[in-house]
Design a protein that fits this description.
Length: 280
């Protein structure tokens, strides 16, 4: 039987995550990769011998790994891995369909610049891009919506805002990917609405596919354990904005001033709303 003094002691908090050191190591490596990619994009003479795409490959791998381990600090690892696998499979399969038929994103063709292709159709990097886009967009949406997290409609707003943020992320990424790095190119067609050579249906389709993915993975990303109010997680915001601002600066360097201005506007507005939500 416990003594009265033992009963009066506060209950200790949960033990620290034993994998926390992995998360912080990945964060440090990711920050280094962001810096190196930024430097190589500004100065093409800086590159890995024999493989000019190695910095971008390392950045994508580290962004994916750090995204998973950041979520693992809040949720069971098996839940996070399941969400990541479903995201990669659904997003990759629909991207492969788009490469074959032009549906739903529009008529695009992937090049070898994005790496080897699965079944000669889908670059291996696309499923990882889906993981980074969807999971980090959801993390940014959670930051923005913190003031309303106890409302009955919070879950619906979270899903909808995640889809919007995914569309904005791809809107910023496409000019860099298609017009500067040539990861893919768009077949010229007479679409009524275009953005930097890409049909607007592409970005709308990313939002719709994100909604579809969230319908599958949202139950695995809900923390079912009762706990005190958790501190805001800025990792998704850093990854999300890191990409936005790098692409904007590179677009400006290459004379894509309109794309650079849009990227800057997206980044600044997102920062303002995310900080406002985090301070709540």
């Amino acid at each position: 039987m416990q003594s009265p003094s033992q009963l009066s002691q506060p209950i200790s908090s949960a033990p620290a995550n034993p994998n926390a050191w992995i998360h912080w190591l990945l964060v440090a490596l990711l920050a280094s990769a962001f810096a190196f990619v930024f430097a190589t994009l500004l100065d093409p003479s800086l590159h890995f011998p024999g493989d000019s795409s190695a910095p971008e490959t390392a950045l994508l791998l580290l962004a994916t790994a750090s995204t998973i381990f950041a979520l693992e600090r809040q949720l069971p690892l098996q839940n996070v891995l399941l969400a990541a696998i479903v995201t990669a499979l659904v997003g990759g399969a629909i991207s492969a369909l788009g490469a074959i038929s032009g549906i739903p994103f529009g008529p695009l063709t992937f090049t070898s610049e994005l790496g080897p292709k699965i079944f000669d159709k889908l670059p291996w990097a696309m499923p990882l891009i889906w993981i980074v886009v969807v999971l980090n967009s959801r993390g940014v949406a959670r930051l923005i919506l913190r003031p309303w997290r106890k409302t009955k409609t919070y879950g619906f707003w979270l899903i909808g805002l995640t889809a919007v943020l995914a569309m904005l992320f791809v809107l910023a990424f496409d000019p860099f990917a298609a017009r500067i790095k040539h990861y893919w190119f768009w077949t010229p067609v007479k679409f009524p609405l275009m953005w930097q050579g890409a049909p607007l249906v592409d970005f709308l389709s990313w939002g719709i596919v994100t909604l579809l993915i969230l319908a599958f993975i949202t139950p695995t990303l809900i923390n079912k354990k009762l706990s005190k109010r958790s501190p805001p997680d800025f990792h998704p915001l850093c990854v999300w904005l890191g990409g936005i601002f790098i692409w904007g600066i590179v677009c400006m360097q290459n004379g894509l001033w309109q794309a650079a201005a849009v990227d800057a506007a997206i980044g600044i507005v997102t920062i303002l709303f995310a900080i406002r939500g985090a301070r709540w």
